[in-house]
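>> received
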Amino acid sequence: MSDHELIEKYLAGIDALRSAVAGMTAEQVRARSVAGAWSTLEVVCQLADTEGRFAERMKRGIVEDRPPLPVADPDRYSATLAYGERDADEEIAVVGAIRKQMARILRAQPTEAWQRVGIHSTDGEKSLEQIAAKAVMHLVHHLG
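>> returned
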């Protein structure tokens, strides 16, 4: 997949996320359809928090030489960052703003920048291209 195609898929995630929650009531967004599973709101909050980490990793990979990319525990985020008190529309707006900003940054990068790497604490070397592709797939995974 070309860099351009990857960026377009990355941006398409914004509308896909909006569509996934369109028409849901506040009660539906907060409901847990399966015991022990996250609610739609919790998933949206996790996506917003993760988008920030993906963006930070991409930026660091562009700017720094082989930067460390620490792992994050989503369960700790959900337990401590007030997922139940947050607003789904605001969180979706966060995802949209981050992805639009990153798309502009990514479009400005020379081809060779896509192969710059950071060192993930559990997964080893990850290129800018791999991080962007993981961001795309992470959102798609949660939309399922």
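>> The first helix runs from residue 3 to 21.
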